[in-house]
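Hello Y.,

Per our agreement to keep a running log of every chain we model this quarter, I'm adding this entry. I've kept the format consistent with earlier entries: sequence first, then predicted structure.
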Amino acid sequence: MARTRFRSDRGLTLRMGGVGFGLGALYVIFGVILIQGFQLGAVGLVIVLGIAWGQWYFSDSLALKSMNAQVVEPQQAPELHAMIDRLCVMADMPKPRVAVAVTDMPNAFATGRSPKHSAVCVTTGIMQRLDADELEGVLAHELSHVANRDVTVMTVASSIGLLAGFITRWGMYFGGMFGGNRGRDNNQGLAFIVVFLVSMVVYAVSFVLTRSLSRYRELSADRSGAYMTGRPSKLSSALVKISGEMAAIPNRDLRDSQAMSAFFFAPAINRESIGALFSTHPPLQQRLDQLAKVSAELSEQG
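Predicted structure for the entry above:
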């Protein structure tokens, strides 16, 4: 975790380490199968490393672009900047870029490869629906993601599924073009089947690992944000408001944002389409119960 005044979370640190190790192993296995199966040698290694590096380095830009969000300067959104300025001073952390996405969907997310290269984005929908204290709670939640660096882990973790699918399609094309004579066709076909099956396994394992980490990191960010502002009831109020409003957002708009759902403050999902194992966020009641415990603890300390 970066050195800030956000409360440290050993459970989150251990989970990020476990997921990072597991996904690193998957990268190695997938790379070996790719190189051996298609005999790509150094080319295959460069592809694997290049895509992984690109996902990490350009993560903030890609996330903002996917939401059509625009970075705003202090003169464009003075109240929003002032709120983030105050929270960053309280947390003793670098100020991220501030972005706004013009959409009625009430949400927010953080992205970036490090606290110094990060961005916090809010939608116009969330700014219209929350009061200042509620929005501050949401922003504290998002800033804790940046401070904990779990945004970086989630970005890299999410990219491996995309990598598996891309390499499979690319391998099919490569094998078809450079498969050589008929004597090698069977070997190339077998190699493709092996890579395809391995890519499916890689995607399935990475999917479960990232969903598990995603649920825990949301609980951790709720705790950290509530302790930082000292007003867990405001974060609870924001959660209730946003969860209720999200149910009224058209399914088409939610589907358009599905790729970013794991990064959102509240999930962009159809209520009927998700189960506990595959959810990106913990149940609303679990989040509210945790915030109630934080509130009771702060009251006792006061």
